[in-house]
Write a structure and sequence with these properties.
Blueprint lengths: L7 H14 L13 H27 L7 E2 L19 H23 L8 H31 L1 E2 L1 H8 L8 H12 L1 H18 L3 H6 L2 H6 L2 H8 L8 H17 L1
Antiparallel strand pairs: 1-2
Length: about 260
C-alpha cells in the first residue's frame, strides 16, 4: 500500500492501515518506486492470458468447420443479420478484445516507469489511467469468462467425428511407440512412416493398411490394432487431471 510521510507516528499509522487492509507496509514510499504498479498490472495480464487462451479455443472450435463447442443460445436471439442460425461466440470475442487491450496497457507502463524524479507528474498521469483501465479490462474478462465456462455447450458427437476424420492416422505415434519395443526406434519410425504415407496418398483407411502389412500383422492382432487406433486410448491422464484440478478449485472456494 502507499506509504505515509515517514516518521515514527506516520510509520505506525501506515502499518496499522496496511494490517487492516490485509496488505504489507511499504518500506520505501510508493512515489519512489513504480515497480509495484507494474507488477500489479502484469499479474492482471497473466491472469488474462489464461482466460484469453480458453476464449481463443472456444472461438476456433465453435466455427462451423469444427462445431465442437458453442456458447449458450437463448431462444429468440439472432446470431447474424445474414445467417440467423449462427451462434456467434460473443463472450469469447469480448474476452479476446479486452485481453489484447490489457496487454497494451502494460507496455506503456514499461516506457514510463524509468522516468526520473519521484514527483514527475507525467508518470502518474499514465499510471493512474493505466491502473484504472487495467482493472476495467480484467473485470470485463473475468465476468465473461465466468459465464462462458458455466454455460458452454459441448458437442461430444462432433468431437468424436472430427478426431476420426484421419481414420486413425492421428494415432500413428502410438503405433510407433508400441512397435519400438519390437523393432527398435529407427526401424519402427521408418515402418510407420511408410504405412502412413501409403494411407494418405492412396486413400486407403489406415487400419486397413496396418492389417495388411506383414510386420504389423506379425506383432499385433486385429483387436490390438483397433485399440491402438482408438482415440479414447490416447488421452493419457487428461480426464483425471482435469477432474482433480476442478475438485481442488471447488474445494478451495468452499473451504
Amino acid at each position: 500500500m502507499p506509504s505515509t510521510p515517514r516518521g515514527k507516528p506516520a510509520g505506525r499509522v501506515q502499518d496499522s492501515v496496511a494490517q487492516q487492509l490485509g496488505m504489507h507496509s511499504m518500506a520505501i514510499p510508493s512515489r519512489n518506486s513504480r515497480v509495484y504498479r507494474m507488477e500489479y498490472i502484469n499479474n492482471l495480464c497473466l491472469l488474462a492470458t489464461t482466460f484469453h487462451k480458453i476464449a481463443e479455443e472456444v472461438y476456433q472450435t465453435s466455427g462451423e468447420e469444427f462445431g465442437e463447442v458453442s456458447e449458450a443460445f437463448t431462444k429468440g436471439t439472432v446470431g447474424s443479420s445474414t445467417m440467423p442460425q449462427k451462434v456467434n461466440p460473443k463472450l469469447a470475442k469480448g474476452i479476446i478484445a479486452n485481453a489484447q487491450k490489457l496487454y497494451s496497457v502494460l507496455t506503456s507502463c514499461l516506457y514510463v516507469s524509468p522516468r526520473p524524479f519521484e514527483a514527475d507528474s507525467s508518470a502518474y498521469f499514465i499510471f493512474d489511467a493505466n491502473i484504472q483501465e487495467s482493472m476495467e479490462c480484467i473485470a470485463e474478462i473475468v465476468m465473461r469468462a465466468e459465464e462462458l465456462t458455466r454455460t458452454l455447450v459441448i458437442n461430444r458427437e462432433r468431437m468424436l467425428h472430427n478426431v476420426q476424420l484421419t481414420h486413425g492416422l492421428i494415432n500413428s505415434e502410438k503405433i510407433m511407440m508400441h512397435l519400438v519395443a519390437k523393432l527398435g526406434k529407427d526401424a519402427a519410425h521408418e515402418r510407420v512412416y511408410q504405412l502412413a504415407m501409403r494411407s494418405t496418398h492412396e486413400g486407403i483407411p489406415y487400419a486397413e493398411v496396418l492389417r495388411h502389412d506383414p510386420v504389423i500383422r506379425q506383432n499385433f492382432s486385429d483387436s490390438e490394432i483397433d485399440a491402438l487406433l482408438d482415440p479414447a486410448h490416447y488421452i493419457g491422464l487428461c480426464a483425471e487431471m482435469a477432474q482433480e484440478t476442478a475438485n481442488r478449485v471447488m474445494g478451495n472456494n468452499h473451504g
